């Protein structure tokens, strides 16, 4: 990802913290929720690595291939999960977006190449980048709307407070989607 170093470090912190929370969440749940939390932790840490400013770490050229392979495997796992009735097609889209960004950044002479961090034009396929931006923008708006508290109807008691787990999980998903938007915009 290219752009100002401060925004890169802020994305590293956001995605790293989200990955750490998801890893902790994976330890305390089981089954499908545990697998989802593990996938989200992988996504958070992967995004944190990808957001590192070029001045802090210039990864070797082969690392983007490894990165694409890891998220390609995650995409295949996500595809099999979705095909067998899984409820997380968003994880599949996220893994494919990570593969797309890694391949784009690995391409020699591409404006999105990590080591150069040039800004002479758009990296990747503009239509695909635009579709991913649209997907993530809609996801952020829809998921973010679910975070807004609902007021109690007039004359009825306020709903009982819920545990912070579901809202925090959704907030982490929204923050990773926002980070994805930022990374795609700077690709």
In short:
The chain is an all-alpha fold. 68% of the residues lie in helices and 0% in strands.
Quaternary state reads single chain
H/E series, N to C?
A: HHHHHH
Taken as a percent bin, the fraction of beta residues is under 5%
The poorly predicted ranges are 111-120
Shape: globular
Largest sheet: none
Radius of gyration based on Cα positions: 18 Å
C-alpha termini separation: 6 Å
What structural category do the secondary elements indicate? mainly alpha
How many β strands by DSSP? 0
Percent helix: 55-70%
Total DSSP helices: 6
> What is the residue-averaged pLDDT?
83
What does this structure look like?
68% of the residues lie in helices and 0% in strands. The protein is mostly helical and 187 residues long. The chain has six helices and no strands. The model is unreliable at 111-120 (pLDDT under 50). The relative contact order is 0.15. Helix 3 runs antiparallel to helix 4. The protein has helices spanning 5-28, 31-50, 63-83, 89-106, 126-147, 164-185.
SSE order and pairing:
Elements: H1 5-28, H2 31-50, H3 63-83, H4 89-106, H5 126-147, H6 164-185
Helix pairs in contact: 1-2, 1-6, 2-4, 2-6, 3-4, 5-6
Please give a handful of descriptors for the protein shown.
single chain, 187 residues, mainly alpha, 68% helix, globular
